Amino acid sequence: MSRNEDGAVDQEPISTASVWNRVLSGGPRRTIELAGIVAVGVLAVLMIAFVGLDWLRHAPSSGAHPLIESLYAATGVDRAAAAVFGQFLIIGQWMDYYLGTNVFRHPFMWRSIATGILVGIVAPLVGTFLVHRQMALIGETLAHTAFAGVAVGLLFIGLTGWNGSLLFVALLVSILGALAVQWLTEQTNTFGDVPIAIMLTGSFAIGTLLISWGRDVMTVSIDIEGYLFGSLAVVTASGARMMAVLSVVVVVLVAVTYKQLLFITFDEQAARVARLNVRGYNTLLVVMTAVVVVGAMQVLGVILVAGMLVIPVAAASQIARSFRETLYLSVLIGQCSILGGFGFAISQGLPSGGAIILVAILFYLLAIAISGRSGAALSMH
User: Fold this and answer.
1) The dihedral sign for the CA sequence 48, 50, 56, 61
2) Level-2 CATH architecture, domain 2-56+106-371
3) Over 70: is that where the pLDDT of 7 sits?
């Protein structure tokens, strides 16, 4: 920087080289963290590509729009997508050969892995804001609300024969539950966590009553254990597509509103004085939480889904020196927990939800042992 004739400071243009110099000047720790984030991003892109190929490889049904049918016929996109999709399955066959398994050659396993990897990104991403605002219980509440949504969806399908997505119904109910929690918190004079506790128990009560009643009046088979504890078989093609779309939306929203959410997280009163729309950003945060919970419910289950919002963030907070570093480390720990939990669940034939959370807790205990401290104030940078 230099000063001009008026004494003002002239800013030098920021080049790509100067940005990399700043990254490298942060030391090996900073470089490793950023390299890990880049690797996670590449892995997420590959998984989203897999989900997209899984969708494109199927030619449109006879009832599809004529324009879509002609587009498929002219471009042959379904055949091209099927060819690339087959390469994923070939990789899975080689993995089965070297690992001695018989699961990675099947599309359902790749859908589960893709969903889990995306959950390992967006859950700690949103959870970092929740934990630092002492709103960790909101994730558990919205998980139970999503369970009520599953019950409503199953009942609706059984009574009407509707062939839609069960997760879509759960998503709508969970978002309505998030808005209800936000409204109750603003309208009541009780302590902040009382409306959350009421919504948690109330939504789970509604879900259990609807399912118990539905067993006698409908013929739809109910795999409640899969939704409660998580299961690789629960993830459907439509569920994986929904998770891919919602993950992109959540990441974009966090990137766009990061500064505002950070301001509100550390000083909500100052944010109100600065005339930020605090109510709007709070609503956005709980809605994003509802979206993440519904997606994560497929592999983690209703009972354990809140763990992925909280545990990686708690582990990262033990060793991070700033809020941004906590964000990075929580995503990395979440990703390692997902992959490690999947590996443990597959090798032992156990539910994926419990295995993932157990691995996450091991990372948390390891972080405590490494840090040697109970916690410290974080920088906002």
Assistant:
1) negative
2) Orthogonal Bundle (1.10)
3) no
